[in-house]
Amino acid sequence: MQNDLLLTTFPDPEELQKALIVLENLAGEYELIIPQPALSRIALPALVVSREVRGRLEAMAPAVLFSGWVDYRAPRVKIPDGPAPQEPQLAGCFRRSVVMFLGPCVADETKIRLITHLEGDLGITAGEHG
After folding, report:
1. For 62-89, how does the pLDDT look when each residue is reduced to its tens digit (9 = 90+)?
2. Which structural domain, as residue segments, surrounds residue 35?
3. Alpha helices in 29-127 (DSSP H)
4. Does residue 80 sit within a domain?
């Protein structure tokens, strides 16, 4: 059954909500993976479904934007936990990332590739602000 599962993320929280409503209406089984608070600024909620449920979901919700689909693999390491990070004090610091594309790596099937939109300036170091 593990090989039958796919994982997706969404470019926007509203798209996730639209997908969940459709899943509830079609009684499709799914798992929602919510990031630990410590990763809340860099990790996104992910949806895990079977290939069959994915097909029904996409047929019933053609307007929902998915970032892409990859084979689901159970985590091998424990995800760190802790409090959510504080909002950055400096306007130029990293703010958040949004996965716009998610897909399998064509060179190495054990990896994924993604395209993200980053908010903030990753080029500024703390030392530059005195």
Report:
1. 999 998 999 998 887 777 777 877 766 6
2. 2-73+85-129
3. 51-60
4. no
- 105 within a domain of the structure (yes/no): yes
Sole residue written with tokens 């030392």: 127
Are β-strands 5-9 and 46-50 bridged in parallel, bridged antiparallel, or unpaired? antiparallel
Q: Identify whether 12 is part of a domain.
A: yes
Q: What is the mean pLDDT of the chain?
A: 81
- Strand ranges (E), 28-127: 31-33, 46-50, 68-71, 96-104, 112-119
The model's pLDDT over 18-28, given as tens digits with 9 standing for 90+, comes to 999 999 999 98
Instruction: Give the integer Cα–Cα distance in Å for 93 and 83.
Output: 19
For residue 1, the model assigns a pLDDT of: 42
Determine the length of the chain.
Answer: 130
Q: What is the CA radius of gyration of the chain?
A: 17
